Amino acid sequence: MRIHTLIMMVCLVLSVFQVQAADPSVDPPPPPESLLSINPGSELWREVRQRDGVVEGISQVKSPGANVLVNVSGQSWREYRMQELVPIAGAAILIVLVIIAIFRLLRGRIMLENGRSGVKILRFTTSQRAAHWTTAILFVTLGLTGLILLLGRKFLIPLFGAEGFSNIAVAAKFLHDYLGPVFMLALTWLFVLFVRDNIPSPKLDLQWLLKGGGLFGKHASAGRYNAGEKLWFWLATIVGLAVIISGMVLDFPIFGQARATMEFYHWVHSVSAIILIVVSFGHIYMGTAALEATFEVMKTGYCDANWAKEHHDLWYEKVKDSNESAPQSQAQANTDTGQRESADSAY
Amino acid sequence: MATMKFYCDAERCIECNACVTACKNEHDIPWGVNRRRVVTIKDGEQGERSLSVACMHCSDAPCAAVCPVDCFYTTGDGIVLHDKDICIGCGYCFYACPFGAPQFPESSAFSSRGKMDKCTFCAGGPEDDHSSEEYKKYGRNRLSEGKLPLCAEMCSTKALLAGDADVLSDIYRKRIINRGASAFDWGVNFNNTKIQG
Fold it and tell me: Which of B51, B86, B94 sits opposite A48 (nearest CB)?
């Protein structure tokens, strides 16, 4: 009996000590093990949802990405395409067109100050013009078909209906897919033929840019190509390269590209293509309606001597005495093939 | 109107791939296209689980949002379907889809994509029910016969469930309770079920 009482008392005393041990400054005793167990279900769904990076599983289906349960990059790509790309591309195109329209209203058609001289100077060889127009036609086709695929749902389905637009989109996709690789060849050809005279000459180009390229008044001095043309050349080359590389990745989805890869290259492709398209509007306007006697230069290869004097004075000084400026009229220029061939070889 | 959903119970799926095979057979799906697939994560490790995935027929479907030709539509039963006559095979739905559901048969030169193919919840397409065009493009239309998707109907462990979302969640809730759910384990941990909620 006494022993039992003793044990009970010891227990009581110990329990008092235990209560004292539950002081907040001391770490509480660990909870039972079952409470500490991590819910394996939460781990499973965390992996399924790819919360900590991409978790790859295995699957009997062997297509690209088939072993990934949830593709998390899809949502951000969707948001990029629908909430950024479509509205920003549409707005950028509209803004550039408005700027060109305002410029037109302010400056009107810019005429040659001294009119035409009637003297023709060879500016572009046949192969240069062929390269330019091949690239230009491909560029316009690719740009238009690309914009149809990007903005058609918003603007063309209301006009043609979903089935009517589908036919247009099929044609657009076909042209875009097949002409893309051809554009790569054309742009390479263009680069080889035009790069020589597009090497920047920092001092002259900077002066030209500081004068605003003569857009707002006095002509700025320029060599064979002015700084604006050089900028367009290098933009078309560098951004064009980005468009081509990304386009080739998107065009041939047969090398097991993952979805994240395709989404990234779609981003590269769309951003660089929109940059090229809006800047090309400036180039196209400048080359056609903006300046008198400009379109005929790339059309026939020959420019008027006064045009050369006003727009490319330094180049004019260099070539005015050379025999390349021989033909006196456009008609002659078009028939005089021997002349042109010798000019070709001179370039 | 019902809202049709799939649910795959990770505690029951045994990665037998019968759903994949049944789907391919029922709809006569071409080589290289799999409307449904089974993915196993942590294969051979502790906590290995398999899930059968196909189109989940999202309420706010990313494929429909990004489609450049707007070929997707949602039926009254909440099933996301698409019109193959409108589809141009661009692949955007595949980039946007979280589940990798859209599939593309290789067609024409240079292996370009054909028209997209995906799970229809065995509900066919926009063509007339049971027409041969519908079968050719979209496979069997079981729903119009009053049958549920075959993958779920023939699942041997009843891991894959298909049907009205309310009914599915009732079934799943009952399973959770019967598994000895606890307040701490949420019914998916068989090792620690000492404390009952």
Answer: B51
Q: Average pLDDT of B108-128?
A: 87
Vertex A18: Cα angle to A17 and A24 (nearest 5): 105
pLDDT of residue A34: 54
3-state SS string over B132-179? Answer: HHHHHHHCCECHHHCCCCHHHHCCCCCCEEEEEHHHHHHHHHHHHHHC
Is the distance from CB of A68 to CB of A54 less than 8 angstroms?
yes
**Chain B residues within an 8 Å CB radius of A266:** 95
d(CA B125, CA B186): 39
CATH classification number, A73-346, choose in 1.20.1290.10, 2.60.40.10, 3.40.50.2300, 1.20.950.20: 1.20.950.20
Q: At residue A198, what are phi and psi to the nearest 5 degrees?
A: -105, 10
Range of the domain at B147: 4-178
ipTM score for this prediction: 0.86
Minimal CA–CA distance to A35: which of B167, B49, B192, B82? B192
User: CB of A171 within 8 Å of any CB in chain B?
Assistant: no
- B63 contacts chain A (CB < 8 A): no
- B residues 97-126 near A, CB within 8 Å? 97-100, 103, 106, 110-113
- 3-state SS assignment for residue B60: coil
pTM attached to this predicted model: 0.82
From the list B92, B98, B191, which residue is nearest A75 (CB)? B98
Q: What is the CA radius of gyration of chain A?
A: 35
| B122 has pLDDT over 60 | yes
Task: Identify the segments of chain A with pLDDT beneath 50.
Answer: 1, 16, 19-22, 325-347
